[in-house]
From TrEMBL:
Annotated keywords: Carbohydrate metabolism, Glycoprotein, Glycosidase, Hydrolase
Annotated source species: Penicillium argentinense
InterPro entries with a match to the protein in the record: Acyl_CoA_acyltransferase, GH, Glyco_hydro_3_C_sf, Glyco_hydro_3_N, Glyco_hydro_3_N_sf, NagZ_Beta-hexosaminidase
Claim: Hydrolase is one of the keywords in the record: yes
GO molecular function, one term: hydrolase activity, hydrolyzing O-glycosyl compounds
Gene3D superfamilies: Glycoside hydrolase family 3 C-terminal domain (3.40.50.1700), Glycoside hydrolase, family 3, N-terminal domain (3.20.20.300)
Name of this protein: Glycoside hydrolase family 3 N-terminal domain-containing protein
Length: 946
């Protein structure tokens, strides 16, 4: 939406001057370069991005007496003032916007050990549990930047860490809870604004759940649908907009989901104009991701990308450093206007937004008179106290099962303490794309505008940690590092020698060698005492100094401490906690922490084992009550299910079902079905239902607790799954409506399930089969594809089919195929094969109402008409065209079902990651949708001790 003003202020008639204000550009070097001078003087550049490469202090190269004269803050103030003077002398009507990334923690572009304070990362601040502290930290951060002349901060980070696995953001977010991220994001934003900085939320529409591809020329993908994003990831963005966010950075990620197929978000009008402007009603400045990123230059080119970004609705285009590329972008924009691709109205609309932002963020009086070191000196005492308080309050002891803390109670000063730390790179400064690249590719040259800053090298910080530990305990500390080479003989010797061990991990969740190293050391700390003949454990403390998820859910590590940063201030607070001088009060933000606080020992209801003879009729009555309770117009997942639907009676699957019942009336108040698949070591909760009239009475909690305890007793238990594909009644958390979905997700999250790692699965239906015809062109497409199809029955084909399933399918699918192989002639398997080598590219089960599989798929009876079934499509990664193979399998299955004289087709156990699009194009509609959740067995060992 354009601002209301129709006329530009005087002096803005020139097109070149207008266009210059619509770029943000960076440069190399710690002094004004000829290139940045030319951009300001000749191209009227309106915003300059400063990063660590512009603000490094060279004091380490100077003689000691001169150190005080060369402070980074002083140099930064001088640099910013020179840039503003160049703009004024060049006739700029308004000052430059000077932009900086300063997220705190390890992500600081400006660092000065004397004048600029270090504060915790976003997650570290959230760990304090204090919104007011978040506001204070933001104000202090902004005051320091304002003092050196910065007027625009690239923050706050508003991403929700909906998938903690392999994500580059880590502690730069406040966690996986959208409400927490929203609340802290607004406090950070208001703090920055209170101190006079313009704000820029990032990274819209979300970097919290990215799928990584294999090439530097590719970009990470957001696979969540708009509905999923709206219910979770977009909440903090929406809330910040409602509270007056000044600007929004739109990322360069691609999006691929139902209704959204975008190569680069910041170049898409679907994302900028439709989603951000119209749906979220954002009226501020929109900033693009850096158009110099490799994937964009490779796919589109900077000139074309600039035109696309402007047409998509971006107001300011970011280009980080290459002068020829920056010129190319400016010339591309001018050419786009001259050729009529971009209208002058759009240029002027963006210009009004930028000028409005400048009017609120700066003036020539402010720009030419930065307060500098005098102001920073006055702030220093209060900001130092705030930094110490924030770090002290953030340290989190997630577990201390054996009461090892404080260490002073365990080892004497004469005994030796061993500190093991990883060899890590210098502390990373702002690094969105750099982090993405490193996460996806294990390193490499950054293609982003965000570069690495060294607050202090990781090795230096850890050496200082060792010295602090030694000083604090007045005893000897043995300190050595470890690498991806694992546990070496020197480590083993030191472990034997020491009386207690501290292992530090830094982002071990992505650097798996660190997790493996810590686990190996844990085993070495368990030893057999030859003098007493007893098994003993040497005290071991694992400290995560970056992502807290390293061992968040691994309870084999009994004492686990999180600092969220490995800045010196954070590690000073850690030392105080380890020796009992500071009582830790921090808590991990988000759902994991909440789940660990649930006190599971209360069992308000007596839970009994299911007895088929006694409870079958009562369960049928409970299922009927569930169906009756379903709102009109919504489908109940138990439609067609009976008490016998839950009974598999398979030799390799152990069943244990539980009930809460009224022993007098025999009525069931709740039912839980569990299955243990021995072949994979997976324990499954296949159903958990409570009488609608008796909800919110802890019946569900009691059933869940008993189910988990029962499954933990199974020999070979490796992982848990919420949702069962066999029997196919509840495939996971039902998603009947957005409100109910949110409530159920929260309920299961409070029980300990990490619902942020869920994956969609659904059942679909094709009605009016007698009149159905394939989509235009589908038959011809299949005929042209280099794939052949066949229909097979019986165990003669078991080996090749099950090998294909084993390598390509999820838990439970193989059991469905085994039933199908033994169910001829009412069950069959359609295969898609490559003619050249007979390799199976895809398969699907097809069956009718008389097949043995139909007994376990009550969804088949949900249409109240003669129906055939399709189940569990499995497509190999080797298939060149996923959709074509899938549609070919489904088309042949439909033709087979027509021979059964069926009027409809129900397809169950469909993975929802993108499959629904190709099915809906064939006429299928959604019947039921679910969220399947998996987790390691270790998740429950603390919540449900044996």
């Amino acid at each position: 939406m354009a601002p209301k003003e129709d006329m530009l202020p005087p002096g803005w008639e020139d097109l070149d001057r207008q266009m210059g204000q619509l770029f943000m550009m960076g440069f190399d070097g710690t002094t004004v370069s000829p290139q940045i001078r030319s951009l300001i003087e000749d191209y009227h550049l309106g915003s300059v991005l400063l990063s660590a490469k512009n603000l490094k202090c060279n004091s380490t190269l100077l003689p000691f007496p001169l150190l005080e004269k060369f402070r980074a803050a002083e140099e930064a103030t001088r640099l910013v003032l020179e840039l503003q003077n160049i703009a004024r002398d060049a006739g700029h009507p308004v000052p430059l916007l000077i932009v900086l990334d300063q997220e705190n923690g390890g992500v600081n572009s400006l660092y000065d050990e004397i004048y600029i304070r270090q504060f915790p990362s976003a997650m570290g601040v959230a760990a304090t549990g204090s919104k007011s502290l978040a506001h204070e930290v933001a104000v202090a951060t902004a005051q320091e930047l304002k003092a050196v002349g910065i007027n625009w901060i690239l923050g706050p980070v508003l991403d929700v860490l909906t998938n903690a696995r392999n994500q580059p953001l880590g502690v730069r977010t406040t966690g996986d809870d959208p409400q927490e991220a929203s609340q802290y994001g607004v406090q950070f934003m208001k703090g920055y604004q209170q101190a006079g900085l313009a704000t820029c939320g990032k990274h819209f529409p979300s970097y919290g759940n990215l799928e990584f591809l294999g090439s530097h020329a590719d970009v990470p993908i957001i696979t969540e649908s708009l509905e999923q994003l709206s219910l979770n990831a977009l909440i903090p963005f929406r809330n910040a907009i409602n509270h007056g966010l000044d600007a929004m950075m739109v990322g360069g990620v691609s999006m691929s989901s139902a209704g959204m197929n975008v190569m680069h978000a910041c170049l898409s009008d679907q994302v900028v104009e439709e989603l951000l402007r119209k749906d979220l009603k954002f009226e501020g400045v929109v900033v693009s991701e850096c158009l110099e990123m490799e994937a964009l230059t490779h796919n589109i080119g900077v000139g074309g990308g600039t035109v696309m970004a402007k047409n998509a609705g971006c107001d300011v285009v970011l280009l980080c450093r290459s002068f020829p590329v920056q010129q190319e972008a400016i010339n591309g924009l001018k050419l786009g206007v001259e050729n009529g691709i971009i209208g002058r109205a759009r240029i002027e609309e963006s210009l009004r937004r930028v000028l409005d932002l400048k009017a609120r963020a700066t003036s020539w009086e402010q720009a030419l008179n930065p307060p500098g070191l005098l102001s920073l000196t006055q702030m220093q005492p209060s900001h130092t106290n705030l930094s110490t308080r924030a770090y002290n309050d953030s340290i989190t002891v997630m577990r201390d099962k054996s009461n090892l803390l404080p260490l002073s109670n365990l080892i004497d000063p004469c005994e030796e303490l061993l500190l093991l730390t990883p060899l890590v790179k210098p502390l990373a400064a702002s690094a969105v794309t750099l982090s993405v690249n490193e996460s996806a590719h294990g390193g490499g040259n950054p293609s982003s505008w965000e570069q690495t800053s060294s607050v202090m090298s990781g090795e230096s910080v850890f050496k200082e940690l060792g010295r602090s530990l030694s000083r604090q305990r007045n005893g000897r500390v043995l300190h050595t590092s470890y690498t991806s080479n694992g546990v070496r003989p020197i480590h083993e010797d030191l472990v034997k020698r020491a009386s207690a061990v501290i292992v530090v991990t830094a982002d071990g969740y992505r650097n798996k060698y660190q997790q493996s190293f810590a686990k190996h050391i844990s085993l070495l700390c368990q030893f057999h005492d030859s003098s007493s003949g007893e098994r003993r454990e040497k005290p071991l403390i694992v400290v995560s100094v970056s992502s807290p998820y390293d061992f968040a859910m691994d309870f084999s590590i009994g004492t686990y401490v999180c600092t969220y940063d490995f800045t010196e201030t954070a590690l000073q607070a850690l030392v105080k906690v380890l020796y009992g001088e500071l009582t830790p009060t921090g808590t991990l933000p988000g759902s994991i922490s909440r789940s660990q606080k649930i006190h599971q020992s209360r069992q308000h209801w007596l839970v009994e084992n299911w007895n088929e003879e006694r409870d079958a009729n009562a369960l049928d009555a409970l299922l009927e009550a569930m169906r009756d309770d379903c709102p009109q117009g919504q489908r109940s997942e138990v439609l067609g299910a009976t008490s016998s639907s839950f009974l598999l009676r398979k030799e390799d699957i152990d069943e244990a079902h539980f009930v809460v019942r009224n022993s007098s009336t025999q009525a069931l108040y709740g039912f839980c079905a569990t299955y243990f698949f021995r072949s994979s070591g997976t324990g499954v909760i296949g159903c958990l239902i409570v009488d609608p009239a008796r909800r919110k009475l802890s019946i569900g909690h009691s059933l869940h607790s008993r189910a988990i305890r029962s499954l933990l007793q199974r020999k070979g238990m490796k992982r848990f799954q919420l949702g069962s594909r066999l029997p196919g009644i509840y495939l996971g958390i039902p998603t009947v409506s957005s409100v109910e979905r949110k409530r159920l997700r929260q309920w299961f999250a409070n029980l300990g399930w990490n619902t942020s790692l869920s994956r969609p699965v659904c059942s679909v239906v094709l009605r009016n089969l007698t009149t159905w015809t394939p989509p235009d062109g589908l038959t011809a497409t299949l005929q042209n594809a280099d794939v052949v199809y066949d229909l097979v029955y019986g165990w003669n084909f078991a080996r090749t089919v099950l090998d294909h399933i084993k390598t390509n399918a999820r838990q439970g699918v193989a059991d469905i195929y085994r039933i199908a192989l033994g169910g001829a002639p009412h069950c069959g398997i359609i295969r898609a094969k490559r003619p050249s080598d007979d390799m199976i590219l895809g398969s699907v089960v097809v069956y009718n109402e008389r097949s043995p599989l139909a007994e376990y798929m009550p969804v088949l009876r949900a249409t109240h008409t003669p129906v055939g079934g399709i189940s569990s499509p499995v497509i190999s990664p080797c298939a060149d065209d996923y959709s074509t193979v899938m549609q070919g399998l489904i088309l042949l299955a439909i033709r087979q079902i027509r021979r059964f004289n069926a009027n409809a087709v129900v397809m169950d156990c469909v993975d929802g990651d993108g499959n629904f699009d190709c099915l809906s194009s064939m006429g299928f509609s959604m019947l039921h949708s679910f969220e399947e959740v998996n987790c390691d067995a270790a998740t429950w060992t603390m919540l449900h001790p044996s």
